[in-house]
């Protein structure tokens, strides 16, 4: 069973990813995020880097359908919560879908938001991620500092993985990774 805190965080992430706010996750939501990135960075969608950003959104969504074992091309909040409930509750050490989801999400976030390709997320890149996902900015800096464990003003892939582990697995309201996607306790 997910704790109340876990439920709130995972429900919040669903709302963040549901870009067009129609209550289901569909390919459109992920394509929209990619298109917002292209627009914000003035990247031509027909260029190689433009195409890559669009293809990644497709791939990430298809993998999400596979993970949640969805026969349809959309994911409801109920499917989403059920997937995480099952994965987080499974205690076996063998590779859980959640672990690969965390790795993939890290890769996805870096591929979209590590704009200078130095394998680190800077404060500007992190703020850009929040703006693309329409997350209110008030706690952006605080969230960044919590994720940046070694205080070098950059988020490494390891720091992101550790943060995402907190986000999904921790029931501690103060876990550093809780606020990767903004305030969830409303
Ligand atoms: Ca970077
Ligand atoms: Ca760091």
Q: Say which CATH homologous superfamily is assigned.
A: EF-hand
How much of the polypeptide forms β-strand, as a percent range?
5-15%
Mean pLDDT: 92
Question: Can you tell me the CATH class?
Answer: Mainly Alpha
The secondary-structure element order is: HEHHEHHEHHEH
End-to-end Cα distance, whole Å, is 21 Å
Plain-language structure description:
This protein has helices at about 5-15, 25-40, 50-65, 75-90, 95-115, 125-130, 140-145, 155-170, and strands spanning about 25, 75, 120, 155. Helices cover about 60% and strands about 5% of the residues. The chain is built from 8 helices and 4 strands, in the order H-E-H-H-E-H-H-E-H-H-E-H. Strands 1-2 form a two-stranded antiparallel sheet. It has a two-stranded antiparallel sheet with strand order 3-4. With about 190 residues, it is mainly alpha-helical. The relative contact order is 0.14. The protein has a single domain (about 5-170), classed as Recoverin, domain 1 (Orthogonal Bundle), CATH 1.10.238.10. It is globular. The protein binds calcium ion (2 copies).
Note the topology.
Blueprint: H1 4-17, E1 24-26, H2 27-40, H3 48-67, E2 74-76, H4 77-89, H5 97-113, E3 120-122, H6 123-132, H7 140-147, E4 154-156, H8 157-169
Antiparallel strand pairs: 1-2, 3-4
In short:
This protein has 186 residues and is mainly alpha-helical. It is built from eight helices and four strands, in the order H-E-H-H-E-H-H-E-H-H-E-H.
